[in-house]
Amino acid sequence: MTGGSLGLRTGSYGSLQSIKNVIAGGGRLLHSKPVVSARKNPIIMLSGSREKERSLPSVWYRCLGRRKVSMLFLVALSLLVFVLGSFLVNKETESRSPTVDQRIGTMSMTHYLNGAHSEASRILGRKDQHKDKKYSAANSVNGGDGNKFQVSDSKGANHPCMNFTFPPPPPPYLRRIGPRPCPVCYLPVDQAIASMPSSPSESPVLHNLTYVHDENPIKTEPHGGSDFGGYPSLKQREDLFDIKESMTVHCGFVKGSKPGHQTGFDFDESDLEELQQFHEIIVASAIFGNYDVIQQPMNISEEAKKNVPFYMFIDKETEAYMKNKSVLDDSKKVGLWRIVVIHNVPYMDARRNGKVPKLLLHRIFPNVRYSLWIDGKLQLVVDPYQVLERFLWRHNANFAISRHYRRFDVFVEAEANKAAGKYDNSSIDAQVDFYKKEGLTPYSEAKLPITSDVPEGCVLIKEHIPITNLFTCLWFNEVDRFTSRDQLSFGMVRDKIMAKVDWHINMFLDCERRNFVIQAYHRDLLEHMPPPVVIRRPPALPNTNVRGRNQGKRTPRRGRDKRSGSRRHRRATAGNRDGTFF
């Protein structure tokens, strides 16, 4: 039934509005004189209304045509669906009660825009706010204008990024699904180099750090560990979190006096000499098990190319593949990367082998001030000087890592790892249960201004001083003892150290990390992907109107010409019979 018929209904049970001066006759509508008689026959009224209903669509079709009416109907329907969908989304967003996840996510962005100290004070109402002053000073942004950044007091009020404005988030119905990069204010390279501290940062409490050397490590407890890590006992593990001025710790490479020389994870003699050289900054990465495709850095300044070496650690399997593909030759250089081949890898798991250079760069490079670690699947697209200035020097920090873009709770992260098959489920459960016995609790607002227990650990930005070296040593020991999923152990080690000394980690937003690195696919995924489809447009046909016969004439309308179509058809058929093709 059409809209016109619906408009005639006024009562319940299908009662019809009275129609005056219209009766049914001979299959068409006829006008008649007013009848002052009694009640009309309902059958006659019903048939008359139906005839009128049938006439309304026909009028529309005659005036506009069927296609135009159909298009108008589809446009109106699409507009209605869009309006209703937007209304429902906004209503659901407004009516939904804020969960811990939403409040922490909102707080994280507020921490990014309005400052950690002011937001923590507002939410928690703490009386002992003086405990968070240094953390706030190192990670705060302008508290007056919510979209303007504030740099450390030591940088002065004339910092070029002082008035950098973070754009507001788009409305809910325009947001894209998944993590995305966000704008980051970097200094020009020359200014970033000039802002490098002239002296090392002060290491709180711990000033002298040495490492355990044991030629014959023995496993004495049922928990994990390895010959490479030295099997520290649980008591030794607990004692290492009692920060002192001088400490000796297990930190891999326990079998030799020099890391990389008969310790497992061994280097060539020529590489050993180079790794001992002094550098202000290095960039490092690794590919084990031929798991990734080497990514060349982009947008690197001439100063960085000259003064910042790029080291790529690979195992024998990856080396064989690269030589077979003619990617690697005797120069040991692939683009900007200086290739370092590892012999006698300590683990069967390629991912666990990758944790050695990731967490123990200070042992491999004993004479380096700063290091920037990126996973092998990442491509660096911002100059390393600019990255260090933005995430370390600008905040007076000595260790920086991005938080996970979605998860901030270790228990949630553990379940996500199990669901994705990242590691054996029983081993993940055993590690989490062990941490629960040590006091691990789900993340809550009580930990503010710390906004996450789960990092996105594919990028580490570090100054090599005793306290940061101790942190990565103890973090590596957890990876060596339990699972290789370093996201599970990060928060536990960080909190134990922060409970003893006044030290913090700059956990920046994941969207900022995605601004300076681009993530590629692992090799196994790339090899199973179908090749990209290349659509080639055919070349434009030459203009056959050479003599200008059709100049000034109107282009004939599409469709068959009734007068001459049959004649053209006969000519084309005759041409085809003679073997002529058009």
Secondary structure: elements and pairs:
Blueprint: H1 3-8, E1 22-25, E2 28-31, H2 42-64, H3 66-95, H4 100-114, H5 116-124, H6 133-139, H7 189-194, E3 208-211, H8 234-239, E4 246-249, H9 269-275, E5 279-287, H10 302-307, E6 310-314, H11 316-324, E7 333-334, E8 337-341, H12 350-359, H13 361-364, E9 368-374, E10 378-380, H14 384-391, E11 399-403, H15 410-419, H16 425-437, E12 455-463, H17 466-481, H18 486-498, E13 506-508, H19 510-516, E14 517-519, H20 523-528, H21 565-577
Parallel strand pairs: 3-4, 5-6, 5-9, 6-8, 11-13
Antiparallel strand pairs: 1-2, 7-8, 9-12, 10-14, 11-12
Helix pairs in contact: 2-3, 4-5, 12-17, 15-16, 15-18, 17-18
Structure, briefly:
This protein is an alpha/beta fold and 582 residues long. Helix content is 38%, strand content 12%.
Structure, explained:
- Helices cover 38% and strands 12% of the residues.
- The chain is built from 21 helices and 14 strands.
- The longest helix has 30 residues, at 66-95.
- Strand 1 (22-25) and strand 2 form a beta hairpin.
- The strands form 4 sheets. An 8-stranded mixed sheet has the order 7-8-6-5-9-12-11-13, sandwiched between helices.
- The chain has helices at 3-8, 42-64, 66-95, 100-114, 116-124, 133-139, 189-194, 234-239, 269-275, 302-307, 316-324, 350-359, 361-364, 384-391, 410-419, 425-437, 466-481, 486-498, 510-516, 523-528, 565-577; strands at 22-25, 28-31, 208-211, 246-249, 279-287, 310-314, 333-334, 337-341, 368-374, 378-380, 399-403, 455-463, 506-508, 517-519.
- It is globular.
- With 582 residues, it is of the alpha/beta class.
- It has a domain at 208-528.
- Mean pLDDT is 77; it is low at 1-40, 42-47, 91-102, 104-150, 546-553 and 558-582.
